[in-house]
TrEMBL record:
Source organism per UniProt: Candidatus Falkowbacteria bacterium CG23_combo_of_CG06-09_8_20_14_all_41_10
Top-rank taxon: Bacteria
Protein name, per record: Secretion system C-terminal sorting domain-containing protein
Length: 372
């Protein structure tokens, strides 16, 4: 039995239809390490310089050190960290805050009005929290590396990273959970994961879905500190599972509100459905050396070559056959296409689960095909 659910019904009235809509948003000198999109559509990026694109204008700032992570709250407020620096943006300028733990700061993230930072001093990682205008150390763990954070509340935060065994001295991917107070514990270490010695989890994303147990799901990329590795790991309530069929170097992961997970790697952008994750994936974009990916309003923002920001529109990935016919010419015939605009024979057992386009007469709708 074929299983699919309708996600969005869209009436396409297009004057120009292209097979692939990839738009360059920004390109310039200087290394970019992280990009982020606000709910009001502003674009932030940090690295050797800070770039803010909002209200049709581009603003550039040069920080005192290279920054590795940015967390924007809105077009007029953001946090950024890197090396030992903590910076805050108030809509017009950046100011510096004290780092109470020293060492190197890797990621900044927030939820429920709280701001958190991960970092490491020597071989001990720590978690900072903004309290009454200053950052304080809330937890630390020896022989560890804390990197990306995510969660559904400030009472339970997942931290992607690694753990170095004190016996064999091998660094392995690990997942930590902070309880929202002072305790952080190693949730799982992947001892038997193939070809991953010396690597760590880099980034974690919520999939915005719940499984049958009511527990939330997560996806994480596996990478080393210098962008190595090639897997996406997915959590379901019964355990963690890899999706290792990708070609390239896994670097970043993000998710959409309708259950899509996107992964950036050295060859492009890959897309996985929350309902079939662990089984199959779709290639969304190829021949792009991608370092970061962010989703906003049915558009995928991509960091290419650590110098260029591009935007891929998921709506405009059609070919001329999708040009609507006058109603009098509509036959009502149902046809199926993939997101690259290629016509397919239909939804069958040989087709990977994923997002496809179903065209019936003048009506085009996205369908979420779960496979057979």
């Amino acid at each position: 039995m074929k299983k699919f659910t309708v996600l969005i019904v869209i009436m396409f009235i297009l004057s120009s239809i292209r097979a692939q809509n990839l738009t360059e948003i920004y390109s310039g000198p200087g290394i970019i390490d992280d990009i982020a999109i606000t709910n009001d559509g502003a674009i932030y990026s940090v690295g050797e310089k800070i770039i803010i694109i909002k209200n049709g204008q581009t603003f550039e700032y040069w920080p005192p050190v290279e920054l590795f992570s940015v967390f924007p709250i809105s077009a007029n407020e953001a946090w950024a960290v890197g090396n030992s620096a903590i910076l805050h943006y108030n809509g017009s300028s950046w100011s510096s805050l004290t780092n109470p733990a020293g060492g190197c700061l890797y990621r900044v993230w927030g939820i429920d009005g709280n701001i958190y930072i991960t970092g490491r001093n020597g071989t001990t990682s720590f978690l900072l929290k903004l309290v009454s205008g200053s950052f304080v150390k809330k937890a630390e763990e020896a022989n560890s590396l804390f990197l990306g954070m995510n969660g559904y509340s400030s009472e339970e935060i997942f931290i992607a990273g690694s753990y170095t065994d004190t016996v064999d001295l091998i660094e392995r991917p690990a997942i930590y959970i902070w309880d929202g107070d002072t305790a952080v514990y190693r949730h799982i270490t992947f001892y038997n994961y193939p070809n991953l010695e010396g690597m760590s989890f880099n980034q974690t994303a919520k999939t915005f879905t719940t499984n049958t147990s009511g527990a939330y799901d997560y996806a994480m990329t596996i990478t080393d500190h210098y962008f190595g590795g090639n897997d996406l790991v997915y959590h379901q309530f019964w355990g963690w599972y890899p999706i290792s069929a990708y070609s390239g170097i896994a670097r970043s992961v993000c998710s959409s509100p309708d259950g899509l997970t996107f992964m950036a790697n050295g060859n492009g952008i890959y897309m996985v459905n929350s309902d079939s994750i662990g089984q199959s994936y779709q290639t969304l974009l190829t021949e792009q050396n991608c370092f970061d990916v962010e989703y906003f309003n049915n558009e995928v923002y991509i960091l290419v070559d650590r110098t260029t920001i591009k935007k891929f529109d998921l709506n405009i990935t059609l070919i001329d056959e999708f040009r609507p016919k006058p109603k009098s010419e509509s036959t009502g015939l149902t046809e199926f296409y993939n997101l690259s605009g290629q016509k397919i024979s239909g939804l069958n057992k040989n087709l990977p689960a994923g997002i496809y386009l179903k065209k019936t007469g003048n009506k085009v709708e996205k369908i979420h095909y779960l496979g057979e």
